[in-house]
Amino acid sequence: MPEFDLIDTGIMPSATIEISINMNFNFRIIAILLTLFNIQCLGFLEQEKDNNREIFALLAFAAFVQNQGPNCNSNQGIWVRNIQTNTSDCIGAELVAQGSNVNFYKETGLNVNLNFAQLVVDFETKIHPNLVSAFGEPSDINGDGKIDIFILDIRDGSSPGNPFVAGFFDPVDFFNDNPNSPLRSNQREILYLDGKELVAILPEDPLAFGSTIAHEYQHLIRFPRMQRAGTQDNTWINEGTSEVASDIGGFGPQAHRIRCLRGQNSSPCVGGGNNVSLLAWNSGPANDPNYILKQYGLAYSFMRYLYDNAGSDTASKNQFFQNTVNGNSSGLRANQILNLMTLFRQATGNTSSLNYPDNILGQDSSESFVILLNRFWAQVIQGSDTTNITRSNSFPSPWNLGAPGNHFPLPTTLSNLPTNQFPLLSNIPSSVRSGSAIFVSGNLSTNIAAITGTNRVTSIPNGGNSVVVFADSNPNSSLTTSSSQFMSWNDWSKMHNHSSDLSRSGNNQGLDNGNQPLTAIPMCGNPFLEEIHEKK
C-alpha cells in the first residue's frame, strides 16, 4: 500500500496518509484532501504553490484511481462486453465459490440469491462431465484448468418485464488483449451469466440458470474448433446444439422451446413455428418480436430429433455430436447443413444395431435433409399423410415417407411437441425461406415459384389443409410468390388427391447457391425472453 507525505504548508504539521488503491477505494479520502487543498489555497497560494502542485498531483492521481475502478485482467475485475455500447466495461468481481473445474465470481456489490455451493456441484457432477463426453475437452488458454463463470448484471438495457440476455460467451476472450480496442479480452475461458432477470425467473423455472450455463459451455467448447477450421458454423447448428447441450447437462427437456414451436397460448410465440426458417437465422419480420424465439425452438427440436436418432445409446449419440464439433476421421465438421447430414448418414449407417438401409436416407446428403425435415414436420403436425407427398420439379410424386418414418421417430424428449392444433397461417407469405414449413388452409390460393431446378418443395396433406415444406439445403434460397403461371396453392391441395401430372419447372432467380461467407464470429446470447411473458 503506497504512502504519500503531505508537504507542510504552515496550516498543519507534516502527515502521512495511506491511500488504498484498489476497487474498494474510499472516495471520502478524496473529499477530505480536496477540503484541505481548498483551505491551503486561501492566502497561501503564491508562497506555497510548489507545495500545492504536489498536493494537486496527489489528488489528480487519487481521482484517476477512483475512475479506473477495479484492476481488470486480475481477480479484482473482469472485462465484460456492454451489450448496448458494444464496448468493454471493467467490472469488479468477487470469487464466491470454486471447484476442480470451475470458479464462480459475482459482480462486486450485486446481491444474488443463488446457492453457489449447489452451482459448483451441478457443474462438477453434471454439466462438465456430460458436455465433455458429448463435445470434448474445453481449451485452457491461461493454463489454470478451469472455467470461470461471472455472474453480473449484464448491461443489455433490459428492464423488468422486458426481454433480457440470460447469458453469453464472448469470443473476444480467446484473443490477445488490446488496450486500444473498445473490446477487451480476459484471455481465459469465461462465461457471463445474468444475476438479475435470470435469477428473478428461477421461482418459475428452477432449471433456467443451470440450463444457461450448459448452453454457453457448448459455445465455449466449440469456438476453438471453429477457429482451427477457419469457418463460421451456421448459427442454427451452433445454437441448436447448445440447446440440446442443456438437456445433456441435466436441465431438459427445454419445455419453453417446445411450447414456442407449438404456438401454445402459454407462449408468446403467436403462430408457433409456422413459416420459420431453420437454416436462415435472422431477425425475422418486423412485426414479430418473438421470431428469434421460434428459431430457437425449431433449432432445438430438430437438433434433438437428429441427436436421438443418430444412435441407439448415449455413447453413439455423443459420438455423433463429437464429430459435428470436432470433425470425423476425415476432418469433416458440421459447419453447414450438408456436412451435418453427411455425419448423420455416417452415424446411422455405422450403428449396426439400428440397421438403417442406405436408401432410407436417400442418395445423398441433400436428399437426407429433405427426408428428415419432412419426416420431422409430419410427426409434429399430427394427422399428416406421409404416403402421398408431392414434390416440385422432376422429382417423382406421390412420394412415400412411410419407411423413413418407422426409423426416425420423434424422441421421448419431444413427446410434448406433436399437436393437432398447429396454428394455420391466415395469409400466404410473399417469401418462404429455406428449411421452412408452412401450414395453410386448403382454400388459400396464390402462385409460388421455385428459384432453381434443384430446389425441393414438398407438401404433406393434412385433412383439408396442407403442410408445405421447402427443404432446400441452401440457406440463401427462398420461394417467392409470382404472377407467372406456376402452380397455385389450391392446385397443391388438388394434387394431394391423385393428380397424374405432378411435375413442374423451376424458375431461376439467380440467387447464390454457394456457402455462406465467413463473417465475424458473433457473440452468443441465450435469451430466455418468453419465461417472463408466459400466461398462467
Description:
With 536 residues, the chain is of the alpha+beta class. Among the domains are: 66 residues, no CATH class; 177 residues, no CATH class. It contains 13 helices and 16 strands. The strands form 4 sheets. A 7-stranded mixed β-sheet has the order 3-4-5-6-8-7-16. β4 and β5 form a beta hairpin. The radius of gyration is 29 Å and the shape is globular. The N terminus and C terminus are likely disordered.
Q: Distance between the terminal alpha carbons, to the nearest Å?
A: 56 Å
- Derived from helix and strand composition plus strand pairing, the structural class reads alpha+beta
User: What value does the average pLDDT take?
Assistant: 77
Largest sheet: 7 strands, mixed
Rg, nearest Å: 29 Å
Name the beta content range. Answer: 15-25%
Strands across the major sheet, in which order?
3-4-5-6-8-7-16
Low-confidence stretches: 1-68, 350-355, 497-523, 527-536
Element-level helix/strand string: EEHHEEEHEEEHHHHHHHHEHEEEEEEHE
What share of residues is helical?
Answer: 25-40%
How many helices? The count is 13
Q: How many strands? A: 16
What would the principal axes of the Cα set say about the shape? globular
